[in-house]
Amino acid sequence: MHFDQRTQQALRDVGLETDDLRAASEAVVEAVAEDAAALEDFFDEHDTVYSDMEMAHSSAEYPEHTVEYADITTHADEMRGWLRFDTWGVSIEDGRLLDDGSVELTLGSTIDDRVRFAPDRETLR
Question: Are 90 and 106 in contact (CB under 8 A)?
Fold first, then answer.
């Protein structure tokens, strides 16, 4: 079970039994795995994406990125991976799909920020 002991105790205090905790934990693990697969699919489906990231070498309001691949792994409720563009790559964490068709990821130490990616600039406006 991935809930830490304090969280487990708090959930027990509000009436959840061990089986309920286990079921909730398994549901979280499954949701994270599904989101990771959907994020990989997003980057597989789009050869080019646009972001809301500020880049020193780009004057575009929403820079364009040529996608090579996204490799995302999960462990319990954690999501980590690598996003590779044509000329650079970055570690990623905690991705999520947004209702407008874009995705949001935390990019690693070279960027160190939460960034949205979309298949077109209009979605980011």
Answer: no
